[in-house]
Amino acid sequence: MRKTLLICLSTAALTLPPPLAAAADTAPADTAPAAHAPADHADTADHAYYADAEGKTGESLKTALHEIISTDVTRLSYSQVWDALMATDQDPSDPGSVVLLYTGESRGADQHGGNVGDWNREHVWPQSHGDFGTSAGPGTDVHHLRPTDVQVNSLRGNKDFDDGGSPVSRAPGNYTDGDSWEARNEDKGDIARMIFYMAVRYEGNDGFADLELDNDTSNGGTPYMGRLDTLLAWHAQDPPSAFEERRNELIFEDYQGNRNPFIDHPEWAEDIWG
Ligand SMILES: [Ca+2]
Ligand SMILES: [Ca+2]
Ligand SMILES: [Ca+2]
């Protein structure tokens, strides 16, 4: 799938009148704006994708966003996730490598698997929190899957996210204790936005659990993730980066056909959960 609707980024201001939005919708593919389109084109596309969410807050915003990001979505198989991650998490300075969550290391794209030194597929929203496994659905949704070092992935396990704990020697800047994981500063906002996306995308109407946020750090086998207050703080302190915006764009254009609204509109997290 290759969609012509392109959206650029958190600067979208929704200032254009509707006639321009309609014009962009009918633009032929070969004249569609490039990925780094001028702001006016980007705003127009953003206006179209999120039109049904405009002006809403709280539960009605969450409901509108759920509909938007759950319509015409492609669900990947778990094996397709490998190829997707090689593209979405490609190292900008080394196309043959991917950037690992939690450590920021660059590792050969082909060096994936289950052995020490490999990278594998981290479920930022753990499979056990909702028991969704790796059949096509939440367990294969690339919006919350990231390459990680095999051993660091294992250390994080299925812990909720929160501040505090002892340093993780294999992953400098990360901390953990018995019931939570604190990611390094560069990854804090990314993680929060991935968790926010999952809570809105999965509402229990598609054969999988309704994933939701709470303020606990002992959610274990329930379909909840915490701590909400910490994640809101992480989201504010680490705003969307170019890397994150690029991967959101690629997932939308080339893999799943849907977007993470909290990368495009960071203010919506507070509108729903603040
Ligand atoms: Ca803790
Ligand atoms: Ca970040
Ligand atoms: Ca939900």
TrEMBL record:
Pfam families: Endonuclease_1 (PF04231). GO terms for molecular function: endonuclease activity. Residues 109-182 are annotated as: Disordered. The keyword Hydrolase applies. Keywords: Endonuclease, Hydrolase, Nuclease, Signal. It comes from the Bacteria. The keyword NAD does not apply. Residues 1-23 form the signal peptide. PANTHER family: ENDONUCLEASE-1. This is Endonuclease. It comes from Streptomyces johnsoniae. The lineage of its organism: Bacteria, Bacillati, Actinomycetota, Actinomycetes, Kitasatosporales.
